[in-house]
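sorry for the late reply, my laptop died twice this morning and i had to redo everyting from scratch. anyway the thing you sent over, i finally got around to it. pasting the sequence first so we're on the same page, its 119 residues, then the predicted structure underneath. double check i copied it right bc i was rushing
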Amino acid sequence: MPRYYYDCPVKTFYMMDNFGVEIIHPECSYGLASKAINFIEYFLFKHGKIYVAKESEEIFKPINNDLAQFTRDDGISTIAQYDEAKKTFINGSFRILKKYNPKIIMRDNKQFFMPEVEK
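ok and here's the structure:
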């Protein structure tokens, strides 16, 4: 079963603050009530993986109008928008195939950071 994690405390805190992502860590549990300074100080010195709580994994599924970045077969990196009615990312009139692994980069006009996946 894959596990989601961040390796950057600043991105993690941003996602917690802006999108409600909850995290777990073998050595501590912060949740959303944590103070930013304590959180960042702790992880800046630990350099460990910051695991996303299972309850927050739904946040990383695309929703209508999400913008995602992907790389085409010709090596060009480009952007696509999620169309909920079609259940896929769209670039112009083209559906983006899952093989291109589009990663959400913007939601609700805010930067969005997808976590890494540990398999």
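Residues 30-34 have pLDDT under 50 and may be disordered.
thats about all i looked at so far, will dig more tmrw
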